[in-house]
């Protein structure tokens, strides 16, 4: 008998005259059990004279489970495969706990659970019963088994076919760890054991014992004893490091950092970094530094110098810590100099990403300036120098560089650091760079840069003061061509005559892309951008009023489409100056508007009719002015302008206007179609000469009649509404005038200026139908206090006082309103008269 340290504890012989099949120790290690092939079981003390023996039938045909407390047999678990010799394939038993028995026999495994029987089921049965919770078959024979957590350790006996002789032979025994399932199992691990003489051994020659407290497993063979123990995470990490699987070892250490005793995560991580550097994977090694080095500044600086020695500072630069921790400024300066010597773009990226307080800004600025002496036009270095000046709060120098480079961040820099005082003499540069952003910024900060200052700076650049067209040369002019008949010709121009399609694209550098004699109308499209005075006027029509005269010329020169809206919205521009400019440039629509605004409506109408030849615009103008003389002029002009409209189309020879009519209507036809709702059509019809040919006369007359009928219907409807409203208002006024009025001692008669009520009385007065005053106590019925003439009038067939009061109550209202009261009575009025008054 040997101890765990292979020291002899006890020895002896004579335990059994036949082969011993099983030896077992109790948990205390003080008793040993021995069973032999003759069915004899012996239990004796190792350190005492205790001994117990029992003889059972042989061979064993099953497993009997006994209750040692009640001395009753609970159940019998039979063998599954009776073809196997029990002496060659013995049964292996082990208790996982006091109530769970594991049985391995042949190639079958059963896990049995001992459970208490319900009191109602006991009767003559044992108090407990056994339930097989897991049962599965294996591909090998079982020489021994033991529990490990919720899994099983099985000592397997395997037979295999030899490749050369094709004869079945014994293979090396295996130690398998399996996960039991209800009807199968899952193999977790399998290790083949090397023991001497395994080729000659049988299944019964191997045994498995385990020490639960120390997690030790003993594999016993005829010639060897193998001790196995459960592998811990340190062993696993050792194996991973031995195989140079550093990443897996690092991950395993992080997962089990509370249980590992032999290894440290930092040591494994440093070994991993060194391994990557040796393999030449510098970027991955630098990336791992963030995770492994953490906030240890000494290790960071050590690794940076190591990367510098191998010339790989660029690899580690993106991963250097920038906040918590912060390394020495020398480290960051060393990296920046490395990039400045070989990679301007990388240098600029680091300057943009790194906070300016990580390094000595003055040293880096001087280094950049020295490099610019060699390459003064290098935009990357200039942009980076501007950023360094910004970090150093030298905003003026940064602004100069940004403007020189036309950098998009110039406006952000101005706003962020309030540099408006520095740009007073740089407005033109800002406008040249991005006029839209510059204008918005200047308008938003009028309190810092005045309008006068901006206009003064832009004095020599008038196109920047306004919304202007982009100058020529044009690379492409897109035009829509409208073809018509040549004046004096009876047939329209055909496509073959013009040699031009209906839609053209002209290439050229001149504004006049077509011959002025061509009978073509072209709509030219310009691109535009917003400028200062134009946007100032759009924001506030009055702020830049002193420049409105200047704006007239600017609009006329650079932005004619916005000239007319400007003239309409501005109340400060000189009309005479505007009229002069528009007449000089032959701006017809603008001239018409100015003439009408200056009161010269007849000249404006004449220009519309003669210059524009637009009957709709002329009629619209006459409607706006609502002047009978204008309608008279328009009618007289229309009488002379009927024109036959057939297949030929009338063409307007001007290139400046959008409203081109491919089918120009005659003036008189237009008047007949539109005049009916504003002027009596008879005035026009009487002036039409007999025999005059008028296009679409029938349709025009029908429209006049329809317009007339519509007017009649509208007037009748308006009359009904007016009468109904008048009657409703009259009734409302009558009810108001007939309401009672509460008076007191302070009320004075409007006629005699005497108090209406005697002092000390509190009476309520109501006017009667004939305007006499009735007096009654509050909430009391009116008392008939009328004089005799009224009663006489009643007797003569007139209305008595009670009837008149009832009539008053019917017509009047209970809520009093303020009316003027007078002592004057009208009792002498006949009833007919006061009814008419009513």
TrEMBL record:
Write down the InterPro entries for this protein, in alphabetical order. Answer: Beta-prop_Vps41, Clathrin_H-chain/VPS_repeat, TPR-like_helical_dom_sf, Vps41/Vps8
Q: Does the keyword Calcium apply?
A: no
Alphabetized PROSITE patterns for the sequence: CHCR
Domain named Vps41 beta-propeller is located at 61-230
Domain of life per record: Eukaryota
Q: Where is this region: Disordered?
A: 777-806
Example GO CC term: the record gives: late endosome
Write out the ranges of the repeats annotated as CHCR.
Answer: 504-647
List, alphabetically, the Pfam families matched: Beta-prop_Vps41, TPR_Vps41
- Which GO BP terms sit in this record? cellular response to starvation; endosomal vesicle fusion; macroautophagy; protein targeting to vacuole
Q: Which UniProt keywords apply?
A: Protein transport, Transport
Which ranges form a coiled coil? none
Q: Which PANTHER family match?
A: VACUOLAR PROTEIN SORTING VPS41, VACUOLAR PROTEIN SORTING-ASSOCIATED PROTEIN 41 HOMOLOG
What protein is this chain from?
Vps41 beta-propeller domain-containing protein
Species source reads Hirundo rustica rustica
Its taxonomic placement starts with:
Eukaryota, Metazoa, Chordata, Craniata, Vertebrata
């Amino acid at each position: 008998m040997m101890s765990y340290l292979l020291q002899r504890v006890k020895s002896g012989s004579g335990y059994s005259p036949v082969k011993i099949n099983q030896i077992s120790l109790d948990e205390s290690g003080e008793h040993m059990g021995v069973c032999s092939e003759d069915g004899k079981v012996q239990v004796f003390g190792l350190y005492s004279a205790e001994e117990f023996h029992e003889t059972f039938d042989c061979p064993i045909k099953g497993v009997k489970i006994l209750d040692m407390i009640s001395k009753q047999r609970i159940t019998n678990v039979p063998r599954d495969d009776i073809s196997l010799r029990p002496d060659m394939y013995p049964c292996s038993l082990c208790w996982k706990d006091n109530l769970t028995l594991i049985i391995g026999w042949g190639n079958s495994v059963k896990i049995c659970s001992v459970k208490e029987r319900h009191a109602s089921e006991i009767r003559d049965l044992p108090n407990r019963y056994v339930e097989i919770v897991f049962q599965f078959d294996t591909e090998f024979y079982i020489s021994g088994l033991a529990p490990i957590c919720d899994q099983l350790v099985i000592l397997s006996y395997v037979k295999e076919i030899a490749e050369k002789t094709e004869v079945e032979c014994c293979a090396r025994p295996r130690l398998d760890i399996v996960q039991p399932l209800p009807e199968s199992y899952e193999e977790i691990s399998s290790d083949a054991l090397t023991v001497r003489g395994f080729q000659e051994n049988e299944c019964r020659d191997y045994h498995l014992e385990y020490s639960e407290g120390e997690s030790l497993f003993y594999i016993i063979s005829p010639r060897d004893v193998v001790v196995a123990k459960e592998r811990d995470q340190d062993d696993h990490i050792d194996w991973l490091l031995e195989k140079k699987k550093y990443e897996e070892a690092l991950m395993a250490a992080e997962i089990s950092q509370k249980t590992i005793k032999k290894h440290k995560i930092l040591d494994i991580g440093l070994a991993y970094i060194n391994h990557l550097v040796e393999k030449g994977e510098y970027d991955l090694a630098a990336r791992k530094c963030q995770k492994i080095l953490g906030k240890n500044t000494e290790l960071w600086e050590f690794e940076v110098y190591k990367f510098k020695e191998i010339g790989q500072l660029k690899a580690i630069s993106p991963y250097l810590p920038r906040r918590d921790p912060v390394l020495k400024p020398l480290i960051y300066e060393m990296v920046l100099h490395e990039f400045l010597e070989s990679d301007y773009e990388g240098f600029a990226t680091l300057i943009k990403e790194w906070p300016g307080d990580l390094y000595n800004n003055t040293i880096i600025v001087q280094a950049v300036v020295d490099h610019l002496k060699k390459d003064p036009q290098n935009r990357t270095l200039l942009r980076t120098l501007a950023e360094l000046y910004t970090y150093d709060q030298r905003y003026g120098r940064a602004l100069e560089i940004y403007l020189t480079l036309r950098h998009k961040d110039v406006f952000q820099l101005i706003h962020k650091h309030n540099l408006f005082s520095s740009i007073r003499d740089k407005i033109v540069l800002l406008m040249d760079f991005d006029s839209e952003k510059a204008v918005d910024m200047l308008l938003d900060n009028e309190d810092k840069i005045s309008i006068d200052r901006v206009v003064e700076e832009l004095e020599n650049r008038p196109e920047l003061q306004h919304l202007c067209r982009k100058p020529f040369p044009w690379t492409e002019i897109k035009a829509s061509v409208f073809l018509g008949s040549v004046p004096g010709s009876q047939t329209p121009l055909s496509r073959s005559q013009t040699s031009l399609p209906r839609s053209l694209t002209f290439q050229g550098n001149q504004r006049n892309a077509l011959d002025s004699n061509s009978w073509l109308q072209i709509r030219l499209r310009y691109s535009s951008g917003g400028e200062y005075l134009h946007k100032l006027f759009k924001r506030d029509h009055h702020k830049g009023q002193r420049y409105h005269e200047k704006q007239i010329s600017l609009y006329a020169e650079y932005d004619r489409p916005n000239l007319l809206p400007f003239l309409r919205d501005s109340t400060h521009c000189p009309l005479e100056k505007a009229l002069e400019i528009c007449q000089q440039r032959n701006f017809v629509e603008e001239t018409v508007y100015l003439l009408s605004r200056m009161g010269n409506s007849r000249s404006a109408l004449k220009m519309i009719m003669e210059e524009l030849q637009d009957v709709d615009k002329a009629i619209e103008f006459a409607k706006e002015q609502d002047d009978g003389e204008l309608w008279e002029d328009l009618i007289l002009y229309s009488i002379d302008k009927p024109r036959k409209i057939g297949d030929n189309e009338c063409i307007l020879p001007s290139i400046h206007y959008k409203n081109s009519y491919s089918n120009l209507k005659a003036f008189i036809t237009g008047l007949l179609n539109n005049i009916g709702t504003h002027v009596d059509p008879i005035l026009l019809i009487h002036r039409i000469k007999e025999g005059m040919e008028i296009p679409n006369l029938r349709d025009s007359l029908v429209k006049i009649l329809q317009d007339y009928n519509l007017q009649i219907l509208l007037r009748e409807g308006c009359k009904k509404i007016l009468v109904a409203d008048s009657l409703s208002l009259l009734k409302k006024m009558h009810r108001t005038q007939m309401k009672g009025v509460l008076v007191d001692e302070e009320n004075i008669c409007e006629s005699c200026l005497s108090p209406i009520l005697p002092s000390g009385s509190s009476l309520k007065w109501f006017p009667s139908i004939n305007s006499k005053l009735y007096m009654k106590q509050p909430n009391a019925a009116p008392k008939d206090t009328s004089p005799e003439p009224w009663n006489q009038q009643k007797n003569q067939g007139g209305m008595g006082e009670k009837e008149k009061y009832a009539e008053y109550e019917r017509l009047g209202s209970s809520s009093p309103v303020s009316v003027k009261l007078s002592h004057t009575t009208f009792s002498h009025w006949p009833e007919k008269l006061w009814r008419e008054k009513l």
